[in-house]
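User: ok so my PI wants both of these folded by tonight, can you help

Assistant: No problem, let's get them done. Here's the first:
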Amino acid sequence: MQCNKVLLRIVIELVLVVIAADIVTQFLLPEVIPSLPDYASRVLDMASSALIIAPYIILRVLSLWRNPPREEATPVESSMRDVMRPIFLIVILGVGLTSIVAVWLAREAHRQAEYEFDGLAERVKIDVTRRMTEFEHGLKALRGLHEASEVLTLSEFRDYCKVVDPVACFPGAMGQGFIRQVQKDEVGPFLEWAHENLGGDFTIRSAGSLQNTSDYLVICHIEPLALNRQAWGLDVGSEANRRAAAVKAKSSGLPTLSAKIDLVQDNLDQNGFLYYLAVYEQGKPLRTPEERQKAFKGWVYMPITSELALDGIVWSGDGKIDIEVFDDRAVDDPNARLFVEHGYQFEDHHANADQYMALFEKSYYLSFGGRHWTVLIRSNPSFDTSGIFMRPAITVAVGGIVTLLLVIMTWNMSAARLRAIQMAESMTTDLKAAKEEAENGVRRFTTIFNGVPIGVVVLDEHGNVIDSNPAALSLWEAKSAEQIRGMSLLDQVAWNSRVDVVQGLCDALISKPSCIEFEMMGLRGTWRRIELHSVVALNTTSEEETIQILTVLRDVTEQRRAEEDLREARIKAEEANRSKSEFLANMSHEIRTPMTAILGYTDLLADHQRDRDANTETGEYISTIRRNGEHLLTIINDILDLSKIEAGMMTFETVPMRIDVLVREVMDLMEVKATAKGLTLNTIFETKIPMIVHSDPIRLRQILVNLVGNAIKFTEIGRVRLRVSYAKSDKTIRLSVEDSGIGMTDEQIGKLFQAFVQADNSTARRFGGTGLGLRISKRLAEMMDGDITVTSEPGVGSVFCLSLMVDDVPDDQWITPSMARGQNNADEEVAKNKSKKINSTALQGMRVLLAEDGPDNVRLISFHLRKAGAEVFTVENGKLAIEQLTVDGTVDGELRSPPPFDVLLTDMQMPVMDGYESAIRLREKGCQMPIVALTAHAMAGDLQKCLDAGCTAYTTKPIDRHRLIETIQRFHPAAKEPIEI
C-alpha cells in the first residue's frame, strides 16, 4: 500500500511539472522575451522545458534507485526528507537565476539586432538618395551645355553624350535628351527645321490621349538613339503625368520627377518615370514663374526605370534586408510600387515568403524631384541567422547542466553521509568514533589528491614514478596509475630539457626552490608544455625511511599559446596603426589633389578677369569660389589635424620666437575680417613679457588665429581685444581674447571643446563652422604644456584665455608694454620683400620634366612654370619619367649624360609607378639631377619619406605658386628672384 502511494505521488508530481513547463514556454516566455527567429524560439522552448523537467526526473530516478519504496519507512528514509530540502532549494535557485540571465540575454540580443538593422536600413536609405541625386547632377550638367550655347546642334549634343554616356554614367537611365515646346500653329516651320537639323525621318508622335492642349512638348534630341528611337519625336505633353511634371519643372526651375509611367522605349515592362529640368536663356532674371516663362528654352530630361536605377540596392544592407519603394505613401497599393528586391531567396518563394514574419521593419519618406517616395525596409532570414539569438538557449542549457551537477553533487554528499550513519549504527561507540576519524582523514587526502586539477606525481630519488593522481594520468596519457608506476620521468622529457629537469630534481633534494618548464611527451605521443614544481618528502615506515620527491606538473601549453597570441595581436595592432597613418596620408592626397585644380584655376580665372577688366559681378563669383575653396581646405586641415592628434602622431618643434611679433602678425591677419564686420580689433600688453620664448610658432599661430577668428565670427557689434600678460606666480604667459559677442551659458561651455560640436544647433545654423577649431586648439595647447580656459556670460561676451608655461627669463630679456606696441622694422622689411614684384623670367632657359597623372593639375602646373619662362615636358607616371632620362627609352636602360632636363618635378602618388619608386630607381642608377617632390600628403613624416626616397626638395598641394617657382628656381644654373604670378 505504501509503495503504491509513493508511485502515485511521483506520477502526479511529474504531470504537474510537465504542465508547468508547457505554461512557461507557451505563455510566459513570449511575454518577457522579445521576438526571436523561429529556430531560436524553438531551441529556447525546448531548453526551457528541459531545464524545468530534467532535474526533477533525474532526482526522482536517483531517489528510487537508492531507496526503493517500502511498506514502512525506515529511519534512513526519514532522514532522506531532510536531504531533499537543500536539493529542492538548489533546483529553485538554479532555475530562477538561469531564467533571469536568459531573459536578459534575449532582450540584449533583440536590442543589438535592432541596432544592427537600423544601421543597415540607414545605409540603404543613403544609397537610394545618392543614386537619385546622381540623376539631378547629370541633368544640371546637361542644362549647362544647353545654356552655354545659343543653338545646340545635333552633332554637339552627340559629342557631349559620347563623353557623358548616360547609360554608363547614370545606371538606370535609358538615355538623356532635350524637349522643345512647339505651339500647334508653329508645327510646320518646326518640322522643316527638324528635317533639316535632326533628320528627314523626324515626326511628331503622341504619347497619350490629351487633345485639348495648345502646344506639343517634343523630344528633339535623345541619346543613345539606338535604344530610344521609339521616344524620338514623342510629344510628352500628350500624356497627363508627363505633361504635369514638365509644366511643374518649367514653372519652378527645379529638377522634377514625373509619376510612374510606361516608357515607350522600355521593352521589359518596367516601372519608368521621367526626370525634367528646365533650360533658360542666360542673363535673364528667373526670380518668378513669369520671368522663368519668358526666359524658357526647353527641358533637358532623362527616361529612367526604377528597376535599373535601384538594382542591387539590397547589397548596401549586406543582403540581410528586403526593400520595397512606393510612390507617395501608398504602401498598400500594388500600383504605387516602384521597386522591390529581396536579399534572401526562398526555395519556394510563395509558400515560405508568406509564412515568414520579419523581425524588424522600417519606413523612410524621401523626396526626389518634387515626388515623395516611401522606402520600406524589412529584415530577412539572412539577418535572423545571427549567433546572438542562440545565447539565451545556450544559457538555459548551461544553467540546467550546472543545476543538475549541483543536485547530483549534493545528492552524492548526502548519500555518503547517510551511508556513514548507517555504518556507524552497527558499531560500538569507541569503534565508531575511531573509524569515522580514520575515514575522514582518508577521505580528505583522497579528495585533495584525486580532485586537485593539477597533476601530482610522487617520484623516488632516481626520478621513477611511485604514485600519481588522475590529473597527472591525463598528462601522461595513461589509463591507470599502475601503467606508469616505475617509469622514469626523464624518459618523457625532450632531449634539450633533460639537463634542466635533472637540475630541478637535484635542487628539490637539497631543499632549494625548484620551478622549471619543459616539453613532455605523453604515452600516445602528444607533446605538452609542462611547468614542474618539486619538493622533497620523507616516507617513514616501521622498517626504514625513504626519500621521495613530490612533484606538481601543470599543463601550460594553452597559457603559452595565449601569450603568443597576445604578442601576435600586439603586432597586428601596431600594423593597424600604421595602416591608419597610411589611410590618413592617402585621404589627404585624394582630397588635396582636386583642391589644387580648383584653387589654381580659380586664380587663373581671377587673373584673366583682371586683365580683361570684366564686370565686378564676375569677379565676385570668382572670389566666392576661392573663398569657399579655401574654407573647404581649412576644414580638411582641421579634420586631419584632429585625426593626427587623436592618433598621437602630431609633432611639435621647439624654437626661439617672439610673442609680440607673433601677436602683431595674427592681429594684422584678422584685421580684414574685423573691419568687414565693423568691429574694433586691438591688442593690449598689460605687463612686461619675455623677449624670447621657446615654443612651436606654427601651432601657437594656429591657436591664436582660431580664438580671434571665433571671437570675430560670434560678435556682431562692439570690439574684439587681445590682452597679453605674464603671471610671475606660475611663470605663464596669458593671451586672453575678449569679445562683446553673444556669450554662452555654463551648459554650452561644458560641451564647447567636443569635436563637431558648437554651443547649440542655432549657433551652427547662424554662424556656420564644424566645431573642430576649439577642440584642436585645446588639444594643441595641452600638448604644449598649456591650457585654454573660458569665462562667458550670455549677451555680454566671452573670454578665452591661452596659458603657456615659460622657462626662467634673464633680467635683460624682457619687453615692456611700450616696446611691444612698437612696430618691428625688420618685420616690415620682410613684408615688403614678400609683396615685391619681379620679372617673369625667373625660370628662363630651364627644362622641367613634370610627372603628374591628373590632367587638370598638369595644365595648371605647366601654365605656372611656362609663365615663369620654363620649358615644360609632361609624362603621366614615374615609369615614363625614367624612360625620358634613359638612352634606349626603357626603365632598365642607362641614363643619358648630360641629363636632358634641369629638374624633375614629380607627383608622389601615380599609377603604374609612383614618385617614391621612380626617385629610388633614378638614384640607384646614379642620377644627380634635382628631384622635387609634389604631393598632397599632409601627414607628419611625409617630408622625411620623400627625402629618404632620394628627392632633393618638397612642395605640397594645393599649389602655392610663389613656393613652387621659388623651389624650382633654386636649381636654376643662374638663379633669379622669384616672381609674383
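One down. Here's the second:
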Amino acid sequence: MFQCLETTTDTGKNNFKILIVEDSRVINNTVAKHLQEEGYECFQSYNLADAKEILNKHDMTLIILDLHLPDGDGEELIFELQKSEKETKIVIFTSDNDLSRRDELFRLGILDYVIKGKNAKIILKDILNIIYNIKINPNYTILIVDDSVVIRRMIKKILSPSGYRLLEAKNGEETFEIIQSQKIDLILLDMEMPEMNGLEILKNIKQDENNFHLPIFIISSNLDIEIMRNAYKQGALDYFKKPFSPEELKLKIEQVMQQNQNKRDLQCTIEASNSCKQFLNKFYANAIFYANSRKKWSDSKFIEIFGESSNNLIQTFDKVDKEIITDIIIAMKEHKAYKNSILYNNKKYLLKLFPLKENEFLISLENLKN
C-alpha cells in the first residue's frame, strides 16, 4: 500500500547547523543571511583556524567549504573530519573547476560541489536543494551488488554522505533474497561476477513481476558493445565503466530519486485533495448558515453549529486554523475562488478552491517543499 513519505528526517531546521567557511566576507555574509532567513542556524568562519575552533565546540550538520583559504587548503578540514569520524556533510564551494580534483574529493566523501561565479540566487537555490535532498534521501534504499568488497566499500563511501540507506550483496543469491524481503529503490549491479554474472541477474529481476520496475545501473570494466546492448535490452537504465566518475554516478542517482519523489509527492497531493473534497462536501449544507452569519465563532460555538463533522475536518488537516475553514466556507457560499496554505500529515500544501456550477467546486492541493 502506498504511504506518503515524510520530507524531513530528524535533521529539521531546529537542529540543522551549518558552518560556512569562506574568506570573502561578502559571499559568506550573503549565504549566511539567506540560510538564516530560511530558518537554519548558521556559523561563519573566514579561515581554517576559526573553522576548526568552531567544530571543536559544535557538531555541524553541513559545512559549506571554500578550498582556497588564507591560512591553508580547505581539504585539510575534510581529512580532520574523517579522523574524528563525525557525520558532518561537506559541500565544496569554490571557483576551482579542476575535474580530476573534483572526482578525488567525491571519492573522499564530500556531499556536493558548487562552483562560484553563478548568480547568487542560483547558488542559494542549489544549496537549498542539497539541503532538501539531505532530508528526503534517508527514505530511499540502494542495493550495491559486486563480488569485490573493495568496490562495495568505495561506492558506499561515495554515496554515504547523501544519506541513502545502503545495502550490499556479493552475488545473485544474496541479491534475490534482499529484493524479495526489502523495498529497494535502485540497484547498482556489477557485470563480472562468479556463478551468476550481472546480465543473468538483470534478466531474472526484470522477469519478476514484483520487481521488473526496479531501476538498475550496470557498473562494469567491460565496454563490449554487444554486452552493453544486451544490458539495455534487458532493461538496464544506465551503464558505467570502471573507473567511473563519482560525481556522474551521484547525479544520475539523484535524477532517479527525484523522479521517485515527484511520483510520491503527486500521490500524496491526490490523497490529500480527495480527503479535502470529501470533508468539505460533508458539511457544505451547514456552511451556508455559517457563511450568512459572517462571524468568527469560538471553538465551542463552532462545534455547536457544525457538530462532529467540522471537528473531523480540523483533525484531517492537522493544525489548520479555524479561520481558514471559515474563509473556505464563505468562499463556497459566495461562489468565489480561494487559496491558502494548509498542513496535512505534517506536509504543507497550497489549497485552491475554484467555483464551477452551483454547489460544485474544484479543489486542488499543490505540495509545497519545506
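The first helix runs from residue 25 to 37. The chain is about 50% helix and 20% strand. Good luck tonight!
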